[in-house]
Amino acid sequence: MERKASIDQTISSPGTVSINVQGAFIVDEDPSRPSTPSDDGAQHDTDIRLPNHKAVVSHVALDIGGSLAKLVYFSHEPNAKHLGGRLNFLKFETDRIDQCLQFVKGLQQEFRRQNGARSGNISIMATGGGAYKYYDDMKSILGVQVLREDEMDCLIMGLDFFITEIPREVFTYSDDDPMHFRDARADIYPYLLVNIGSGVSMVKVSGPRKFERIGGTSLGGGTLWGLLSLLTGARTFDDMLKMAELGDNGAVDMLVGDIYGADYSKIGLKSTAIASSFGKVFKMKRQGENQAEDQGGLSHESREDGNDVSTSQPAFKKEDISRSLLYAISNNIGQIAYLQSEKHNLEHIYFGGSFIRGHRQTIQTLSYAINFWSKGEKQAYFLRHEGYLGSVGAFLKRQPKNWGRRNSFEEYPVVRPTIQHREE
User: Fold this and answer.
1) Helices marked H in 180-274 — which ranges?
2) Taking the alpha carbons of 104, 389, 19, 412 in that order, is the dihedral positive or negative?
3) SS3 for 324?
């Protein structure tokens, strides 16, 4: 149980990563950082430390999607610039973009306080659809230069950086080894990126700056968020994921065992495999109506929330509904990703985007789908900072001086340090 709790914590909290010219290593996360949204609307994720970077960094990066705005910025260690600094990771709900911009405005004031009035102002590197939708708002509220960067270009830049530079960042999942880390490596191409945000984009990456979108689906995080807000009344995506953790999809999904009474071993299906998502709902609803008719009609009673419901209708728990829908969308994405990898002969499949959020069941479902459809020949790869690929890529577009990196991009001078792995 202790090991499981430790793994769950590591997945949901990416950890802190220190980077210097000798390499990178993960250190313990900062316990003072809140894991839930603070009063300013920001939800802090764990940082990337840059202990050897002493120079001033005068820009921040924003990746503004349909659901979330992801912010990355550099800060020096408090009262100790000789210790370098860190990249900070925060996210805001896009519906509250004004809170995000007010936070950045506070960063501007702190930048001038630390570096003096003559230091000028920070600039904004922006990507995602919101870089265009909120462009005028950013310029008006912040009064600074806003540089808009291509979304796909930033995603690939960010992912390339994490894969090649950060040990203990990329991992695979299995029931026996829920978090098996993969070494940072240079020979990464070609690969498939499955970026799951409000929708899903699938991108074939052949080399630095060489990529093409080969497919996707509109059934993504926005679909889960939208349907569960209608079906359960949940108000935040994190609330929905918490409900899914407590649910039993077998209460609403039709399973192989419901049809065959056991495993269907001949075609490799376990009794717990989903034969039809939400497949029990119609049958149970119809049985309830028939029973009510046999008893002389439908009767109604009041629920605790004040809404009248027919006593003939079976009570489906919102937790069960949440889990079923999470599985349905994740399985669908996993199968499409596998088919695209087969079509384009891609061995490595990386999953990114804020839909995953380090959620154990989502990771498990995507891994199972890739393993099942590939008959164990392929694996799904995940990242501990999976939601920040675009914002990190945008940050890298304006690269600080003397930032130790290996070989992520051809157009920049390359520093080739050795990678040092250190245990947490």
Assistant:
1) 221-231, 237-246, 256-260
2) negative
3) helix
pLDDT, tens digit, for every residue of 90-114? 999 899 999 999 999 998 888 888 7
Q: pLDDT-based confidence at 8, cuts 50/70/90?
A: low
Contact 349, 337 (CB under 8 A): yes
Residue 31, both tokens: 């316990």
Answer yes or no: is pLDDT of 314 > 60.
Answer: no
Q: Quick: pLDDT tens for 332-387.
A: 999 999 999 999 999 999 999 888 988 888 999 999 999 999 999 999 999 988 98
Residue 405 or 190, more confident:
190
Pairing of strands 380-383, 349-352: parallel
User: How many CA atoms within 13 Å lie on the side-chain side of 85?
Assistant: 15
For tokens 């994405």, what's the residue? 333
**Helix/strand/coil percentages in the chain, nearest 5:** 40, 25, 40
Query: What are the structure tokens assigned to 412, written together?
Result: 């920049």
Nearby residues of 356 by Cβ (< 8 Å), 6 or more positions away: 196, 362, 363, 366, 382, 386, 387
| Residue 48: predicted pLDDT | 59
Place of tokens 């349905």: 328
Confidence of residue 288 (pLDDT cuts 50, 70, 90): low
* Contact criterion met (CB below 8 Å) for 331 and 324: no
Q: Amino acid letter at 393?
A: G
Closest CA to 13 of 54, 56, 46, 61: 46
Q: Which residues, in sequence order, are bridge partners of residue 300?
A: 310
User: Smallest Cα–Cα separation from 326: which of 359, 354, 350?
Assistant: 359
358: nearest Cα among 238, 195, 226, 248? 238
Per the CB < 8 A criterion, the answer to whether 16 and 46 are in contact is: yes
Asked if residue 252 lies in contact with residue 324, where contact means CB atoms within 8 angstroms, the answer is yes
